[in-house]
Each structure stands twice: as structure tokens, then as C-alpha cells.
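Lecture notes, unit on protein representations.

Consider one protein chain, 133 amino acids long.
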Amino acid sequence: MNLSVSEKEHIVIFDGVCGFCNGSVNLLMRLDKKRIFKYTSLQGEYVKKLDIAKDLDSIVFYDEGELYYKSTAVLKILQKLGGVWLVLGVFLIIPRFIRDFVYDVIAKYRYRIWGKLESCRMPTVEEEERFIS
């Protein structure tokens, strides 16, 4: 399913071949009871239309017209999720270079620890409406 993106969309863009990233998206979909997020992979066709680097190695969060990367993306996603997750927004006061250093260390070893898939994750029939191709 291909959606047109509006300023009001909340899109999580993740590494579709990363085991950790896929597990995180699965968890986020379970926590997202209001179904406010849409999902797409960095390797997908949709991302080619966006103004982001082609060799990007980061989660990206498109939120109401703004793009967020790395640790900021993660924290903004959790804030948007609401509830108890709002509390984690306090970490935004930590300077971004420190937060992103921690993010980069995890990103550097994610394939070794959680594995790399042969191909991008395919949504189930129930998930299809939540994914952008």
C-alpha cells in the first residue's frame, strides 16, 4: 500500500535488514495502540523520494513535516507514543553529541549482536495498512 504523506503523518523509517531494528518495530507496533505510526524501511522506494542521505545508517522519524535522526528520532518516537514513554523525553536535555555517541555504538554492533536479514521485513496482512512501500 502506498500512502501520500501529509504534514500530520508520523513515519518511522528503519533499517529493514537489521534484526534489532525489526524487533524494535515489532515492539513499537504492539505498544502503538492508537496506530499513530506508519513504517517503511531505509531500503524501500518511498525513502528515495525523501531528502535524506542514500547511505544513511540511522533510524529516521518523520513527524509533522520534520525529520529526526538517531537518538533524537528514538526519543521523539517515544514521546509521540505517549503514556509512560513521555518520561523518556527528559533525555533530550542531554547534548545530542553524547546521545548520538551511545546510539552510534549500538548501531555499529547491531548486526553482530542481533543479526542481519537476507531481505527487508515484509509486513503481515494485518500490518499492511501500517506500512508504506
